[in-house]
Amino acid sequence: MQPFSDVLPSRGFGLRTQLFAALGLLVAVVAAAAIVVLGALVYLRAEIQTTVAVAVAQSDAANTVSVTTLLCRRYEKDLFLNLDDPVLRASYLGQWQEAYADLQQAIDRYATLAQTEEDRQQVVAWRQASSAYHDAVIAVAQAIDAGTVTTPQTANAALTPFKEPIRSLTISAGLAHLPCKGGQIKDRVN
């Protein structure tokens, strides 16, 4: 009787060759997995950088809204305190108008960066509040020019109904750039 190994033709794949082939296949699979993981990490890093860049820009825009609102308030007070001096009054009204234009630009910038429905609603609220505030300040300035408002106290009282919207604009703009969503910090402040 012939040995079994002599009966079957040799295929040329010894155990050593098969082990090297299996090892090579395993290395190829691990390399492919590593390439996929590396690609995913590169993509994730790019997405995080984009998200952070947008969040920083949005935060900066909200901060600018807050700061320009405070500048408007400052020039409003200077206008009222100097209502007896037409030259100073005109200067402060001009500065107020410039600050108001800057406020509108800041709101527009935030609007271009708005990503959520909440952000877009915030922009609408800011536009409404700033518009009402603008109309009130202009009306008081015209009343000062007409001589119907003659004291800082009267000017301030004429603006009182419009102070809450402009205060809320300042506060909400300050809160809009906080790093949390869902009102976690906002609820604590309100």
Name the descriptors.
190 residues, mainly alpha, Four Helix Bundle (Hemerythrin (Met), subunit A), rod-shaped, disordered C terminus
Straight-line distance between termini: 98 Å
Rg from alpha-carbon coordinates: 34 Å
Oligomer: single chain
Beta-strand segment tally? 0
The helix/strand series, from N terminus to C terminus, equals: HHHHHHH
Folded structure, characterized:
The protein is an all-alpha fold and 190 residues long. It has a domain at 62-179: Up-down Bundle (Four Helix Bundle (Hemerythrin (Met), subunit A)). Helices cover 82% and strands 0% of the residues. It has helices spanning 4-7, 15-81, 86-113, 117-146, 152-159, 163-176, 186-189. Helix 2 (15-81) packs antiparallel against helix 6 (163-176) and helix 4 packs antiparallel against helix 6 (163-176). The longest helix has 67 residues, at 15-81. The chain starts with a helix and ends with a helix.
Give a summary of the structure in a few sentences:
The protein is mainly alpha-helical and 190 residues long.
